[in-house]
Amino acid sequence: MWRYLPPLLPFAAFLWFLPRVLPVARGETGEYVWSWVPGLGIDLAFWLDGLSLAFALLITGIGTICILYAGTYFAKDPRLPSLQIILLLFAFSMLGLVVADDAITFFVFWEATTITSYLLVGFDHESAKSRASALQALLVTSAGGLTLLIGLLLMGSVADTWRLSGMNAQGDLLRASPLYLWIFWLIALGAFTKSAQWPFQFWLPGAMAAPTPVSAYLHSATMVKAGVYMLARFTPALGGTDVWIWTLTLVGAFTMVQASIWALRQIDLKMMMAYTTVMALGALTMLLGQGSAMAVTAAMAFILVHAFYKAALFLGVGMIDKGAGTREYTQLGGLGRYMPITAIAIAIAALSMAGFPPMFGFIGKELIYGSLEDATWPWLIGGAALVANALMVVCAGVVAIRPFAGRRRIAPRAYTADPGWGLWIGPAILAGMGVLGGILAGRFEHFLVAPMVSAVTGSETGAHLALWHGINPALILSLVTFAIGIALYFLIDPIRKALIKADPKTPGTEDGYDWLLQALKDFAAWQTGIVQSGLMTRYLQTTFVLLGGLIWGAVYFGTPALPPLRFDLDLFEWAVVGIIVGSIVLVLLTPSRLTAIAGLGGVGGGTGVIFFLYGAIDVGMTQLFVEILVVVFITIAMVRLPRAGYIPFHRISAVIAVLFGLAITAAMLAVLGTPLDRRLTDFFEATSLAEAHGRNIVNVILVDFRALDTMGEVSVIVISGIAALAALWAGKERKA
Amino acid sequence: MNSLILTTATRFLTPLILALSVFILLRGHNEPGGGFIGGLLVAVAFALVEKAEGVEAARRAMRIEPLVLAGIGLGCCLAGGYWGGIVHGDFLRGIWPWYEEYGLPVGSILLFDLGVYLAVAGTVSAILFGLEEAGHAVAGRDD
Asked: ipTM for the complex?
């Protein structure tokens, strides 16, 4: 019974959002702000207007249905709890994305949907194909996420606010900015990758490796619409320019037509639904590119239409899969008698998809055709829409008729019947929404579509949602669509075969992705071969040469003023210098490792004594203890090494060592030559005892004033200790 | 290494060094010293045991896995930070609950310094022991 608990969470959220439809329809907006990083002006700001509310309702409503469906679909699978938890996390991220009003908040939620969807697509993680698909989806969408981040930062710097609503209020400023083109392309890339627009469309069909409830949720109703949502959200800020109209219209139209053609190639019904989803996203991008009140009205209505029928169909296909054991329609037939509920739910949803009256889909399609009136290129858009819509009729026919009509095609499974209520209730509700949307079009317009349109364009809807507008061009185009679609439906088998034959010969953008990934791996291998020689001496030489070069550079380009040097040291101080120099000579000349190590200890000890002499007691003590431990450490390591006999003299190493030593000396002298800024010293001298109750300024700084630094350092110490142990234990069992 | 002098001296020296390390930790408040130096001194003490009686004896003497000690240290640092965070709203803000009344400068800062002490002591000892054991494994001998 636990599996019925998770759907209650999104359902509660749905019930919270639902009554807010009324004030939002009256034109009110809600704002919820919590301070997050006040120093940078970043808040956890949320904003509820028509657009975000409609998306929030879709996300929580369809989320409830899909998580409930998953609970039945995976009822006997031990992985169910983790699936439902990740789905909940995803729903939360998606919800945050659509209600966020702060650019950084928005981006964080955007990335959260990318990561959770990676986990969901790769849910079947024991399958290599599933993992590859998940990685592909992750790489493509997170690459877009990076460009989005840069775009948002640029927008924020131009508009001088992190609030999306604030940016939208300064659209003229943004469009006039010299950075506009950069902003547009960076944001558009983010939207195109997320919403699977050409040339990034390939990851979405690949992501069908995800379990059915996941695909229904992520790849129809929610995540892939995030890009479209962002385009709609930023329409007031960035829309209406030539590059916006051109790019979005062309990319959207091309994606739409291409995806609808490849949808006919699919045998797997779920894959067919995936391609029709890409088609729908293309249509939305195209309409938002147009940006007229008509086109935006059509886009907003189509978002709802598509969410209802596509989620229902994805879930319905999952029911066919459960009942008949396959999703390939060439093997299916005659299921209608055994699975009547599935058949009816799918049929209703498919009618909406095909755009037959009195479905919501009919209204959506009419609006798209209606928007041609004030379109930029009516012939191009009209032609593309006509082709895509006709092919949608074909796909709707395939999914609604082929599995259910005719004779049984495969041997009956022991159990072929409608699945339990947990599976069919969701598709039934969603299919029912498609009918309601058609019959109650006026209500839907008033409460959902009109507020959405006003959030995007700031104006009223360009056309009214109704089933009957009289005989007009849109209706005639609809009739033409039906005629072409029905005719093509009867030709589906030869068309599919021709497309399958043409598929390998058609260049696709996925090849580009593969090539890029391979090139990246090859480059990494090449560069690792050069940089990682595997020789400790080489690494140390590289490090010291680089460090020495940097220090010399700093000394050379800085303003070094040599301090007055004094050589009138006490006898005791000369003795310490003598010990250090003598130890160095010993290290250089001795043939024995052990002696060399002891000599190094002498150098370090002498340095420690110098610290004591000049009053840096803390540093001196630390230096001394570190020196003792280093000698112990190196001894342990060295004594175990094979005896090397005489230590050879490395000429290159000697040169590097001398240059590095001189660099340090020069740097120290340069530091001494610059006048001491006593501001910090004065501050700490004044506040150490008064505010931190300690007289040892060094320690007070370490553990109180700059304790965060110390915490970081201590963490690094522990982590490097763990790493050292891991290296020591690598490949062998540790002694108990 | 089997040196009677070293072994005998270790018996006396180790407790003394450990006591000194605690003294240095506390002394760091007003005089040179503090958690970092104290922690290093603890590691020196165990290095002495390890040299004199072997790594097994040193591990036994420590009684606790050194990395666990380091982890506890990090935990103390965090706790010291959150103490100020919860009481005062600022992470790592110093809190001295007994200072006003009794003049005792004891509180979140000392807890933080204790964390540094334990983390350094644990990590350095862990590497020391690990190095010695890995050396045994490489050389295949035990002396």
From this structure: 0.91
